[in-house]
Amino acid sequence: MSGTEAPRILVIRGGAIGDFVLTLPVLAALRDRFPKTQLEILGYPRIAAMAVDAGLVRAVHALESPGLAMFFTPNGAFDLEWREFFARYAIVVSYLYDPDDIFEENVKSCGVGQFIAARHRPDETKPIHASEVFLKPLEQLTIFDGDPVARLAINSGEASGNYLALHPGSGSASKNWPEEKWRELLEYLLAKTKLQLLLIGGEAEGEKLQRLACGLPEARLELAEHLPLNRLAKRLAKCCGFVGHDSGVTHIASALGLPTLVLWGPSREAIWRPLGENVRVLNQHHALAELSLESVVQGIDTLVLRR
């Protein structure tokens, strides 16, 4: 990696929000190892924009681009613009599912300096954390000591006091604490603390946020519905803590360094839990409905209020 122009590295990452956040350590490790490199992402801009805001990457290119479709077919007739695109990079690290190596061979044919094929997901039969799995291929670049903790350093301006963020949803109902218990938690926090509450919801929550907020004092409860992820990250960065399930939003909160309380469901904690100094996981042996209000309140008290 030499020459007058700064070399370029491309990381290709699809998947959901949590998958992307757990790949942030890869971006940080590449920046540390090659500080003069132009590091870019081929992925989903609505997710990867957070990495631009955090200064981890220079640019994001859209994985949904129609011109990329031929790269997934054998002996495809590739668009010249995309051939030239891949030829710019000294290194391509791909986390795409490519079982027959078709995408890899097609990208290599464009003149990429080095192509590193990485697992798109961990092996669920092995208790190795996802970030460790995603870092492993970087050993080909003599990177052996990458920090597995996902970190997002986003400048959001001044902190907005004592806002506690709460996200009562996830991508799966099986990962969620019952809605009635969330309502009890909101009522308790409003009655027993001076916290302002930021209630977060996305497409998966539907009308849940409206039901939870119904009748509660608007002066103490703010709704953040369907915010673009980069805006949500900046809003979260101003909060004093976060409570949520095994979800992409929870991974964002922990990566921002917020004191994060995770109400964990049936996913394999050893593989998928958010890492970090300020993360606490409450796990009732996968029976999340049995998790008591008292346990959650105690977790908030220990992780957030005593600070």
Q: Distance between the terminal alpha carbons, to the nearest Å? A: 46 Å
Q: CATH superfamily of the largest domain, please?
A: Glycogen Phosphorylase B
Radius of gyration: 21 Å
Strand order of the largest sheet: 8-7-6-9-10-11
In the predicted model, the low-confidence regions spanning at least 5 consecutive residues are none
Described by strand count, sense and barrel closure, the largest sheet is: 6 strands, parallel
The strand count comes to 11
* Proportion of helical residues: 25-40%
* Global structural class: alpha/beta
Mean pLDDT: 92
Question: Do you know the CATH topology of the largest domain?
Answer: Rossmann fold
How much beta, percentage-wise?
15-25%
Descriptive account of the structure:
The chain is of the alpha/beta class and 307 residues long. It has two domains: 8-141, 3-Layer(aba) Sandwich (Rossmann fold); 163-305, Glycogen Phosphorylase B (Rossmann fold, 3-Layer(aba) Sandwich), CATH 3.40.50.2000. 32% of the residues lie in helices and 18% in strands. The chain is built from twelve helices and eleven strands. Strand 9 (241-244), helix 10 (248-255) and strand 10 form a beta-alpha-beta unit.
List keywords for this structure.
307 residues, alpha/beta, Rossmann fold, 2 domains, six-stranded parallel beta sheet, five-stranded parallel beta sheet, 32% helix, 18% strand
